[in-house]
Amino acid sequence: MNDSMFESEGTMNATTLIRFARPEAARPTYEPEPRLRRSTAKTFTRSTPTRIEKRRQRTRTFAEDPFRARFGQRLPMGMRQEARGMEWKNFIRTYAPGTIRVEAMRSERKSLGKHEFSIAMTGLRADGQGTRVTITAMGASSAMTEILADHGYRVEMLEFHQFSIFEATVTFIYTVHKSKRVWAVGFGADRDLSIANALCNAASRLHF
């Protein structure tokens, strides 16, 4: 499967699973990245809502499509039916849990259409440290699919939708592992980072 399918905005529906072949090049390398250790500290604040805020909470109704209400773009149909009436924060908690996350990503073009990716990630290591990954692949989707599979988080895509929003990109994917199927969303400054985060969020939903 050629990653050029991800280079233009739009929608792709598939009736068969999308599988990315492993690159024939050298195996990816994984190194600990202590600077990316994820903090588990949380700060809770409690405030007393005003009378006006209480009234707003009682009367507020959420849009049928939370993404359209925020960005003006409609969610893919299956996801829209699932997320109908969700508050935005609940939408993000559900479809972008961030258990596995790409913190930084850069690529260098190689021969034969391949790219060498250097990716800083959190959530792959049990000790909470970050991971620096170097991998050669045809594109960001195949690179991330292999990285996740190497750590036991297999993800296969059934649907792919990608849009530009302001100066960023959002990717929606419908994914499967065994009998479990989930939607996930990923945001990024560019298309590669967006699809990488979408795959990470799909893995988080499928395996955690």
Report the portion of residues in β strands: 25-35%
* CATH fold-level assignment: Double Stranded RNA Binding Domain
Radius of gyration: 18 Å
CATH architecture: 2-Layer Sandwich
Q: Strand pairing plus helix content: what structural class?
A: alpha+beta
- Give me the CATH superfamily: Alpha-isopropylmalate synthase LeuA, regulatory domain
Q: How many separate structural domains?
A: 1
Mean pLDDT: 84
User: What's the CATH class label?
Assistant: Alpha Beta
Overall 3D form? globular
**What summary fits the major beta sheet?**
4 strands, antiparallel
Helix content: 25-40%
Number of strands: 8
Note the run of SSEs as H and E. EEHHHHEEEHEEEH
Measured between the Cα atoms of the first and last residue, the distance is: 28 Å
Keywords, please?
208 residues; alpha+beta; Double Stranded RNA Binding Domain; 4-stranded antiparallel sheet; 6 helices; 27% helix; 33% strand; globular
Question: What report would you give on this structure?
Answer:
- The chain has 208 residues and is of the alpha+beta class.
- The chain has one domain (13-38, 73-207): Alpha-isopropylmalate synthase LeuA, regulatory domain (Double Stranded RNA Binding Domain).
- Helix content is 27%, strand content 33%.
- It has helices spanning 51-59, 66-71, 77-82, 88-95, 140-150, 191-207; strands at residues 10-18, 29-33, 101-109, 115-122, 130-137, 156-165, 168-177, 180-188.
- It has a four-stranded antiparallel sheet with strand order 1-6-7-8.
- A hairpin with a 2-residue loop joins β7 and β8 (180-188).
- α5 runs parallel beside α6.
- It is globular, with a radius of gyration of 18 Å.
- It starts with 9 loop residues before the first strand and ends with a helix.
- Residues 4-9, 39-46 and 57-61 have low confidence and may be disordered.
